[in-house]
């Protein structure tokens, strides 16, 4: 799953960060896997009761990168929530399009939950979501 | 196999009578428009069958709202256009009342609750991505990826124009599997609004494990939900109460919606 060819096209800073994370995943991300009650430092939204899922956001097709690729997201959150989060981070306009892909194949519905996608398509304890500004995989 | 093909057709031909009524607060004409009755296929999506409904009601709302997107409501639930009609009925209508009374709106689109659907292209895209997701579960997305654009169009046009043979000419390829193992995983979504705040749950389950055919009961067991806590229940799809011993592979091949997912609703008997 992590052999995403896109990584090579990224500027150095991001690649370095990426390598680091691939070699040794910081322990806090391990602790935050869904089955556990979670003591991880929360990112987008803090809620101590909801388990977190590690979501890796990969830009594809020339989409702008974000300084941080790995996020702890409440398992009950939806793709729509991640979409508005990315829009804010990248300061996209309402009229700008944004697409998500899982498995380099399909675009999940905006009301799909992170938990469901992780349960079906997660690997190595994380869910990889590709995002782009134009349609990438039809 | 012959009789099983009959089942595919029976499912395809499932219809629901619907009575559409314009929301009273949106009527701008002196006399409220008549309700609009329609028989709609259970397997399709509302935006594909409601052009006539829109034309019937739009003339009775104020001109500023003529270009607004229409949306539908049942007992205060805005109806998600991207759920198949039969699923919405199984999910929300507990007393099996027919015709199904649906309220039509042109104002105050609840875009925090339902997705926007500006055109039928959006429905096509939604169907294609659901099919890809299902195929990713069943065959690692190999079949959808190898299919020609023409086959993708057959799936879409078959559903759009309600043509069973056209749809199944392409869909049968998506239902292929090895005889002994079946699909890799069964694409399904389980709707249990009574027990979870999530709209539906989805996880991996194989049709065959250790040479044993898994059944609907096995699927429920892995949901980690206490189904019995709310009393006796049924598993419903296409309005059918499914026996818990139904093999998952069979039900996936025969009772999946056109998006290739089994949309299973849990229904508790009314007390």
TrEMBL record, chain A:
UniProt xrefs under CDD domains: Ubl_ATG12 (cd01612)
Coiled-coil ranges (or none): none
GO BP field: autophagosome assembly; autophagosome maturation; autophagy of mitochondrion; glycophagy; piecemeal microautophagy of the nucleus
Superkingdom to which the source organism belongs: Eukaryota
Assembly and binders: Forms a conjugate with ATG5.
Family membership noted in the UniProt record: Belongs to the ATG12 family.
UniProt protein name: Ubiquitin-like protein ATG12
TrEMBL record, chain B:
Subunit structure: Forms a conjugate with ATG12. Part of the minor complex composed of 4 sets of ATG12-ATG5 and ATG16L1 (400 kDa); this complex interacts with ATG3 leading to disruption of ATG7 interaction and promotion of ATG8-like proteins lipidation. Forms an 800-kDa complex composed of ATG12-ATG5 and ATG16L2. The ATG12-ATG5 conjugate interacts with RAB33A; this interaction is bridged by ATG16L1 and promotes ATG12-ATG5-ATG16L1 complex recruitment to phagophores. Interacts with TECPR1; the interaction is direct and does not take place when ATG16L1 is associated with the ATG5-ATG12 conjugate.
Gene Ontology molecular function, alphabetical: Atg8-family ligase activity
Residue ranges the record marks as coiled coil: none
Gene (UniProt): EOG090X0BB3
Highest taxon of the lineage: Eukaryota
Domain Autophagy protein ATG5 UblA span(s) in chain numbering: 11-106
Sorted UniProt keywords: Acetylation, Apoptosis, Autophagy, Cytoplasm, Immunity, Isopeptide bond, Membrane, Ubl conjugation
Function of the molecule: Involved in autophagic vesicle formation.
Domain Autophagy protein ATG5 alpha-helical bundle region: 121-176
Membrane topology: Peripheral membrane protein
Chief localization: cytoplasm
Protein localization: Cytoplasm; Preautophagosomal structure membrane
A Pfam family the protein falls into: ATG5_UblB
Name recorded for this polypeptide: Autophagy protein 5
Domain Autophagy protein ATG5 UblB: 185-266
Metal-binding in keyword set: no
Family: Belongs to the ATG5 family.
GO BP, sorted A to Z: apoptotic process; autophagosome assembly; autophagy of mitochondrion; cellular response to nitrogen starvation; immune system process; negative regulation of programmed cell death; piecemeal microautophagy of the nucleus
Annotated Gene Ontology cellular component terms: Atg12-Atg5-Atg16 complex; autophagosome; mitochondria-associated endoplasmic reticulum membrane contact site; phagophore; phagophore assembly site membrane
